[in-house]
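Two proteins, back to back. First:
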Amino acid sequence: MKEAVKRLYVMQLQYGGIPEDVYHFLPDDEKKLLVEIKGRFFLRNGAREKIRVVLTGGVFDVLHIGHIVTLAEAKTHGDVLVVALAMDEHIMKKGRTPVHPQEYRRMLVESLKAVDVAVSGFDRPEMMLDFVQPDVIVYGYDQKEFLRPKGVEVVRLDKKVDDRKFKTGKILELLGL
């Protein structure tokens, strides 16, 4: 049952609610876990509570070992790891042009073993919270804590790699970008 809930939750995030044409092919026992809202299907509250959802995020422009270690550690805090990717516009506001576009970065991150689903960011972090409804938010060792919603556990990871070599900025500098 837990695996079915995990799978349905990931589909719910990928589609923004499971569409009718996908719902139609689900087994009857899985359909019972869902409720229809405005033509899309979402996990019922009782079903969603069977899994622990972890949310983390970042730019993930040039993947390196620090990202892999951080995501693997984040995954240990729950059943489903959701990674929110910074929007290209937000990266540019901080004075950096992304090497890879947002959708490309999302696909790269989602292909990593520890990641269950990667989603593109929203204009406001609160919108991401409403969309994902995490049980845990994990911040990497070099991230600032900017969200501390009530009822959500916040975890700050310890430094795991030598960032003198593996910070994205240092890699870009070495490449002359």
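And the second protein:
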Amino acid sequence: MSRVWIFDLDDTLHNASAHIFPVMNRAMTQYIMEHLELEEHAAHQLRQHYWHVYGATLKGLTRHHGVDPYHFLHETHKLIKLPEMVLQTKRLRHMLQSLHGRKAVFTNAPRNYALQVLDLLGIADCFELVFSVESAKFHAKPSVRGFQLLLKSMQAKANDCVMLEDNLSALMTAKRLGMQTIWITKKLQKPNFVDYRLSNVLALTHIKL
């Protein structure tokens, strides 16, 4: 079987922390303030709490407050200036094309946003599948169910997959299922369920898998 490369999107294939996440986090806090009638501080704390507990704010809101996931995603990902917010990475396309095997994106972001970002990065055609939070039936990473739905969709075995991701809890699930794991981070220490640590995705060309 050929190798299957599974890439997270935000803060893995591109730097979302610089311009996108601050705006998105504010939008999520605002959404919680409006729909749950909370003060800003309480809304901010609740958003972070659900992110820590579930790996995704959305999961907590749908599970405990009956929030419509489609409405939440639409309202919090309306980034008008996205073309100005996506930071380009030189040689990213070249690196992806040089990888042998199948390639997919697995993101907790909504599909429209993911496709826009991949388009702006000029790499949309490098992937056979963009598996968004809708594709995962809102079982966002690190939920095992989301991973299982991805593998089923690709008709792939976990043992053939390499997961590249900035989020450790998602990598822990990937490892538990039998995938190889690559942590994209500037941190120097790595936990034992991480096979490789790279400071950025371009460094993938320097390791032998």
